[in-house]
Amino acid sequence: MTKDYKEITQDISEYVGVLKKAAPEAMDGFYTMAKAATADGALDKKTKELIALAIGITQRCDGCIGFHAKALKDLGATKEEIAEVMVMCVYMGGGPALMYAADALRAFEQFSE
């Protein structure tokens, strides 16, 4: 089964919009936290996105993989940087992490096309 991460993120975005209309204060709070958490600080935005991708892999979240792979492409991450993060995920998470690490690399490549 091949996953289309562009389709996955587009579909999720549509329903996040629905959720934002249904619970605007909670969603605004989430987006405020996301903006603060990803801002450049002691760690730069790209490093924080690499961490977020790793967490998405180890939590087995297709949406997280898609959104963070796209963000990393937009931030100029290289395939080699992504691969090093994938290896750390496999090291720390074993076989299940390997399955999602492969998918994360696929997502990065799909957004890089």
- Say how many strands there are: 0
Q: Summarize the amount of helix as a percent range.
A: over 70%
Which value, in Å, is the CA radius of gyration?
Answer: 14 Å
The CATH class is: Mainly Alpha
Supply the CATH superfamily name: AhpD-like
Mean pLDDT: 95
- SSE-based structural type: mainly alpha
State the CATH architecture.
Answer: Up-down Bundle
Note poorly predicted spans.
none
Number of domains: 1
Question: How would you characterize this protein structure?
Answer:
The structure is a single chain. This protein is mostly helical. The chain has one domain (5-112): AhpD-like. The protein is globular, with a radius of gyration of 14 Å. α3 crosses α5 (79-112) and α4 (62-74) crosses α5. The chain has helices spanning 5-22, 24-38, 45-58, 62-74, 79-112.
In short:
Helices cover 83% and strands 0% of the residues. With 113 residues, the protein is mainly alpha-helical. The longest helix is centred in the last third of the chain and has 34 residues, at 79-112.
